[in-house]
Amino acid sequence: MTLGTDLAHSLELRQKPSWRRAKNTLMSVLLGSAVVVVAIPLVLIMYSVFAKGGAILFKSFPAFLTHDIPPTRAAGPGMGPAIVGTLLITGMATLIAVPLGVLGAIYLNEYGVKSKFAQAVRFLALVMTGVPSVVMGLFVYVVWTLHHSITPPHELTGFQGFGGSLALACLMLPIVINATEQMLKLVPDGLREASYALGATKTRTVLTVVLPAAGSGIVSGALLAVARAAGETAPLLFTIGATRVINTSLFHGDSTALSARIFENAKEAVANAQERGWGAALALVLLTFTLTVIARVTTAFATRIK
Amino acid sequence: MNTRIAFLATPLLFGALLTSCSKKDDAGTGSAKMPAGSDNGYKDVKPTEAGPVSLSASGSTFQKAFQEVAMDSFMKAHPDVKLTYGGGGSGKGRQDLSDMVVDFAGSDSAFKDADKAKIKGGDVLYFPVLLGPISVSYNVSGADKLNLSPGVLAKIMQGDIKKWNDPAIVADNKDAKLPSEDITVVHRADGSGTTDNFTKYLDAASGGAWKLKSGSTVDWPTAGKVQAGQGNGGVAQIVKSTSGAIGYVDLSDAKAANLKYASIKNKAGQFIEPTAASASAAGDSIDVKDDLTFSALDSKGDAAYPITYQSWVIVYAKQANPAKGAALKQYLTYLLGDGQKELAALDFAPLPKSLQDKATAQLAKIQ
Amino acid sequence: MATQPDLRGKGQPADKTFGGLAIGAAALVLLILALIAITMTSRALPVLRHMGLGFFTSSTWSEHDNNFGALPFIWGTVYTAFIAIVLAVPVSLGVALFITQVAPPKLKRPLVYLIDLLAVVPSVVFGLWGVLMLAPHLNRSFLTAGIILAIMIVPIITSLAREVIETTAQADKEAAYALGATRWEMIGAAVLPHSKAGIVGAVMLGLGRAMGETIAAALVIGSSAQIALSPFKSGDSMPAVIANQWGEASELQKSALIALALTLFVMTIIVNLIASRIVQRSLKKTRGA
């Protein structure tokens, strides 16, 4: 066959039979409608949260964020204790989980690597990501919260913010280990070898060369874990109690958190309580969004520098 | 370099913040210095001498609305005392007190005998604080007033009577125009003292019609239309939004949600509406035991609302921490005294005078 | 030649401490998991001794009679998760394909951002919306819970599926086009076979999330301990019943609830393990290319 036939042949192919074109268009429409189907409930939910939550949060602007929580049926804004609680409890959980998680990942990637122990830890960290949050809550309740009595020194446990932090830290730990290990893997070995060639010890290499190189990725992964933790409810239900006044101590006295309050108010039939629930939902959503955005910006910033 | 600084600085910052905050409360809950021999001067030992005192409580959601309001008023008058009431259910309250994780518990029923052995802190004292009616709320058109006798109520709640215009219901409600709508039974999803007392009432008063026994969780029927909600609020939510629904909600929550509720036939044969007054009437004719436990259900009086129940604050007789013990006594005095005035606005009934006096006298037993 | 300072042997103690810290941190994972296993199992034993294996096969749950059977809750967990997957997977896949294959580049970036943001919305917010806005219309049932769970896991599955799909070799895609395929045919020929395993993994991770979800399920599932086929009936799930009944539970009931927690734990571990093995294998395959 000659060039002419080949050309004719390829022209023919460009003229796709109508049923194939139709099928293609149908599929594109289906894909587009998938986006619409997803968009509808998500838009509805976000709309409710921003409209209803916004009404109480922004109408009484600082009041909602600073006032104590009024009695369930009373009107009026006030989620101050819940915001303080969420920030303190999640903050403490981060303090516990992030350094430990990064250290653990350092072990997995820099020291153990393929050893049996490292493989076991990797496997178990995976298993740990699957622990349902309600199990973590019950676990901390049993091993920590219960060992309390009214007499010192056992006053240091009981219903308090710290128990919640422990539960959240347990949830965050495997996530941080996993994310950090992925980031450490991406650091080229050449950097490590150069550092050793200059006479640095392993500790120094890890701390001054590897960690900074993986730094932004680690920070971003940690922030995402924090955002996850800030939204958890079940682990807190069993461990932190419920206060309606601001409590800045993690060890003494009941604490509360936005997620727990949202759950409580979802169960009420009184409009005043439901209103505060929406407001708390908005505050929590804004918090997690902010953390996620900072995480994304950190990664983008770092890759741009490199 | 900069990421490393940020990485290290954030936890350090949090750490500094947290340690500075915890120091503030250390002064409060440590051992108060009690002058020797002043064991009868609890009124004179002001909690401020040792710094702020915090008391935590958990338990009955029935009392929760009252506790919230009472704690607010008390804390305004005594800024050195911090009070928290966590709810969570009567069982949780009793368990938490038993485990000594809270300072006092709110509970709609007394400790079961089997649980008494597990109480860690010694003897407990029961202080009744309020009475309240459980309303049978409903959402059906054509009946602004509904009369229900306990046998009929039992059959409805266990699914034997399925439609609103069933002859058994119509028999007590000749004036109402009940539609032939299906009945949706609404019950509690969570364990509850309200369920416990409601089912105890049905057990006692329905003359054998009630088959599902009593308890804080019950094996509700699953055939037919059944829904469950969390908390009194949850049940109220469902009754409000479901046509044909009927459910048990304490009066306080039913009124707050603007629900219609039925009049129940009491032991004396009268159909009584749940109100603070009819609940008080129920409280007048109860047998109170020496430890101040009793049941206000299915009470004898003519004007008594039969599904009235009660709630206690349970505390340890021996208080290990004198500052906390003093604050606890002050708060209880308030609850039994001026605090009772807050009850009417919340649709609870105050304690009958005789009970109030007995409870106040019992305060002396707290050491 | 000037004498070089002998750096060998310096910093050994620092190395040892740091290495020790690192091992310690890693060992913490083992420690915590072991503690969870031990404490939970010991607390679950009373009910297991009382009910024997009947705990897993009985469908009564009666505190009054001390008769506890896990079957209705296992059913509820599995059934609602199943409904969630059936609803979420076609939609997630569609969105992922749309973002990666159909969307113009300008639209792609914001869509990806949006999906990632939605993946972080706390589940309790979905629960709040579900109980206050959806349940009054739909009643509380397996279906309502399934819908809420589906909405919750769509962003998760979409994010993961998108990542896997993006690793399809450009060369394969161009080869398909060069042979005259339409866009959809290209997807079928190049993208799907390559991403199949990864997508399955993403779906199973979503499944694990749906099974373990406590709050959203507790609020809208209806809390009825029954095994029913109709999605319009009320049911109950393991995490939901634990959260609901813990507060008022008797000693043996608490043991039963912890036994449920353990059962859930084991089930979600199995699902998550299978999922990550599949995802990892598929990612490894593509990196080679």
Overview of the molecule:
The complex is a heterotrimer of chains A (306), B (367) and C (289). The mean pLDDT of chain A is 85. Chain A has helices at 3-14, 18-59, 61-66, 80-112, 116-129, 133-145, 161-186, 189-197, 202-230, 234-237, 258-266, 271-305. In chain A, helix 2 crosses helix 12 (271-305), helix 5 (116-129) crosses helix 7 and helix 6 (133-145) crosses helix 7 (161-186). Chain A contains twelve helices and no strands. With 306 residues, chain A is an all-alpha fold. The model of chain B is unreliable at 1-50 (pLDDT under 50). Chain B is elongated and about 65 Å long. Chain B contains twelve helices and twelve strands. Chain B has 367 residues and is α/β, with parallel strands linked by helices. Chain C has 289 residues and is mostly helical. At the A-C interface, helix 2, helix 4, helix 5, helix 6 and helix 7 of A face helix 1, helix 3, helix 4, helix 5 and helix 6 of C.
Can you describe this structure in just a few lines?
The complex is a heterotrimer of chains A (306), B (367) and C (289). Chain B is of the alpha/beta class and 367 residues long.
Give the tags.
heterotrimer, B: 367 residues, alpha/beta, nine-stranded mixed β-sheet, three-stranded mixed β-sheet, 12 helices, disordered N terminus, C: 289 residues, mainly alpha, MetI-like fold, two-stranded antiparallel ribbon, 11 helices, 77% helix, globular
Fold topology:
The complex is a heterotrimer of chains A (306), B (367) and C (289).
Chain A: H1 3-14, H2 18-59, H3 61-66, H4 80-112, H5 116-129, H6 133-145, H7 161-186, H8 189-197, H9 202-230, H10 234-237, H11 258-266, H12 271-305
Chain B: H1 2-29, E1 53-59, H2 64-77, E2 81-88, H3 90-98, E3 104-107, H4 113-116, E4 124-139, E5 147-148, H5 150-157, H6 167-172, E6 184-188, H7 193-205, E7 225-229, H8 231-241, E8 245-250, H9 251-256, E9 260-261, E10 263-265, E11 271-272, H10 276-284, E12 308-316, H11 322-336, H12 353-362
Parallel strand pairs in B: 1-2, 1-3, 5-10, 6-7, 6-8
Antiparallel strand pairs in B: 3-12, 4-8, 4-9, 4-12, 10-11
Chain C: H1 12-51, H2 54-57, E1 61-62, E2 67-68, H3 71-102, H4 105-118, H5 123-138, H6 142-166, H7 170-178, H8 183-212, H9 215-220, H10 238-245, H11 251-288
Antiparallel strand pairs in C: 1-2
Helix pairs in contact in C: 1-11, 3-6, 3-8, 4-6, 5-6, 6-8, 7-8, 8-11, 10-11
